[in-house]
Amino acid sequence: MNNKSEKILIVDDVSKNIQILGNILSQKNFQIAYAQTGQQALDICSIQDFDLILLDIMMPGMDGYEVCEILKSNTKTSEIPIIFLTAKADMDSIIRGFETGGQDYITKPFNAAELLARVNNHLLIKRQRESLKDINSHLEYLVKERTHELETANHQLSVLDQAKSNFLSVISHEIRTPLNGVIGLTELLNQTNIDKDQKEYLTYLKDVSKRLVRFSDTALLITTLKIDKYLPEKLPVSLNNLINDSLKDYKNNSISSELQIIADLPADDLLVKVDSDLLKTCFLMIIENSDKFSNGDSRLSISLDIRNEDVSIIFSDNGPGFSKTALDNIFELFSSGDILHSEGTGLGLAAAKLILDAHEAKIDVKNLETKGAQLTITLKYISRKDFLNE
Questions:
Q1: DSSP letter for each residue of 324-374
Q2: Which CATH superfamily includes the segment(s) 235-389?
Q3: What's the chain's average pLDDT?
Q4: Total-model pTM
């Protein structure tokens, strides 16, 4: 081991002891300094740095205990390991040495092998402690740097999220006004003397316009939910009625739909404490998105599963299901997936998720093993007894 850079201070009022210690240590290439009084030791430590101090206890004037206490109270010297040199091997003296801050002791007369072993041991501990301190300091720097990066990234994400919300809000308002005019004009044209083909074109135009209005409404709903401006009005309502009303609205809005819907609802109706308008909107989004990919053989089944205090509304279709990309980003705005299918605007399921978050409800989406996809909404329901006691 190369010890040239490690400096040791010997403090002893007896010159012979200093000479003996110096000879033993210098053979191992340690740099040696010495002091013969406690005050000399303190003065030297104020201008030089040491890796270890060998400190005699019994000295005239200031003894080793007092010198040790002063060194340990000074931040500049508090980390220097101190080994006491003593002819007193009684337990009280040893304990007092440890209490004042000493790390070890060596009894006189000195044993060279023991002296070197203890010196090397404490120097090794000091090096390891300094290395650990350097590592901790570096880790703290890395943590601070990473924290700053994350804070910057989170700020950028927050800005982007706000920009998306603002964009949706603008799109909603800018689209809705002209679309309402288009729908009104198609109604007026329908009342004029036009042929069958023209009526069909107008029906298609009206259907497309209504779809765009619903897209606009979804965008606006997402914006209000994202910025917590929508306060749900939760009241006990019939779950069967909510589902049936959603189906009725869907049929009124999608007269030409080929989607076959089978609602298997229990005779014993359940009550759920929800914002009925919001939840009905959620159900409509699910049904309408299933309709996007429907054909003459498309089916959507709606069923309930009651377990403990939870009720699950299960929507299962026989459509194309989700792509892997869609499943990975299923609840993200503007993702490549949409409700129950592998394409779409990416707004439907994101809006449904926000609605359900506002109700502290769960939503789960998966592909079926055979064909199609399944979406499950889980809510707390209210028993008739609990409702009567409210």
A1: HHHHHTTTSTT-S-BTTBS-S-S-HHHHHHHHHHHTT-EEEEEE-SSSSEE
A2: Histidine kinase-like ATPase, C-terminal domain (3.30.565.10)
A3: 83
A4: 0.50
